[in-house]
Amino acid sequence: MDYRTSEEIVGPRGEDTLPASASAAVKVVIVGGFGIGKTTMVGSVSEIRPLTTEETMTQAGVGVDDIAGIERKTETTVAMDFGRISLNEQLVLYLFGTPGQERFWFLWNGLFEGALGAVVLIDTRRLEVSFDAVGRLEERGVPFVVAVNAFPEAPVHPMAELRAAMDLPDSVPLIDCDARDRASSRDTLLALVRHLQSLHPVTPETP
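Given the sequence above, the corresponding structure tokens read:
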């Protein structure tokens, strides 16, 4: 039996409760290679305080994790990131960021379960680190958009060249994104929602 007084029982914070008008919730995964900006994106766009599982990188990862191009990275996601954003009064997206290192890929299957769509983040300096994410989404039949994350000094290539380099069909949206910017991250999620709607258009009911 709980003998605490009502003043001592702490419930969810007001900011964490769903809007009363919300009628649909969609699970979305943010994927990509190691150090690609997944945690940053979830943190920048989430309307609640995001849940992160970042830990300090240690000597245990030396020779195991490929940090080429991201040598100054000091923390890494070891399980997942979680956030939430209401795109309008009815539609809420639950965001799950995946870990990037290959040694944590076994967690991906659980995070992909029930996801209606995904955002694949890429870095033009290291396109190859996100190839596996694309392949896994295609294998599971999860629709996705590809977002070119803005990194300082990253080379800029025409979208047609990037699409060819990643062997993306024309049906997969390829867009620019700055994971640090809330508006840009939100626009990326809106692009995913529009893509999902195009794949599953709503047919008006006939009287």
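The first strand starts at residue 24 and ends at 31. Try to locate this feature in the token string yourself.
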